[in-house]
Amino acid sequence: MNDAGSPVSVLLVDDHAVVREGYIRLLERHGDIVVIGEAGDAATAHSLFCHLDPQIVVMDISMPGTSGIEAMRRMLHYKPDARVLVFSMHEDIIFVRRALQAGAFGYVTKASAPNVLVQAIHAIAGGKRYLSPEIAQKLALRDFATDKDAAGSLSAREFEVLRLLTQGQSITEIAQSLGLNAKTVANHQTVIKQKLGAESAIQLLTKAGQLGLMPPE
To answer: Residue 63 burial (CB < 10 Å; 0-12/13-18/19+)?
Structure first.
């Protein structure tokens, strides 16, 4: 993917500046990786992606407003061969599946040892897909048990609306984040309730919590 001898260019996307600074130092200790840009939200990430054309995007999922998964979808729409490595605190398989279905080239949890992130970048730069060991094991065990998550019937847009609802965002706020009108978002909410068997907003949040979708305290 990169010319022989040239460093792998990375765009780092995480909403915490201190976290970004730490990982930039980690990555740039390796002479063959250079962070050419950093962003704390989806809009900035997409703008930098279009202007800088990094070889790899290291993307967090949880950000204010639009999630990393939605940001990745927009990047792939702009450049279908973009290589995005999701780097997230979420270890629930539902997030892993959604990220991979959306086109992620790899998934690494922030609980992984620091060298795992470096290994993932090297692997993806070489054209290989990468899952951190604990995620690969969970995915294999879940597939072995043929246990489909209850949110599997949700479309990508419905999943994103549900994720934003769990963050306490209103219909209007979600509409603004996703570039939709409020009526469309309300319709998505109705369909989500039907698919998850929830009759009220409280029941919907309870279902989301059971699926591992609620944000950490």
So the answer is: buried
In the sheet that holds 33-39, the strands lie side by side as 33-39, 8-13, 56-59, 84-88, 106-109, 130-131
The CA–CA distances, whole Å, from 156 to 66, 120, 121, 147, 193 equal 13, 25, 26, 20, 15
Query: Which residue, among 79, 92, 90, 123, has the nearest Cα to 105 in the 3D structure?
Result: 123
Query: In which residue ranges of the chain is pLDDT below 70?
Result: 1-5, 140-152, 212-217
> Residue 121 — φ and ψ, nearest 5°?
-65, -45
The span from the CA of 208 to the CA of 217, in Å, is 15
Helix (H) or strand (E) holding 39: strand 33-39
pLDDT at 139: 72
Domains of the chain: 8-144 (3.40.50.2300), 150-210 (1.10.10.10)
Could you tell me if 68 and 42 are in contact, meaning their C-beta atoms sit under 8 angstroms apart? yes
pLDDT of residue 147: 38
Query: pTM above 0.85?
Result: no
Residue 147 one-letter amino acid: D
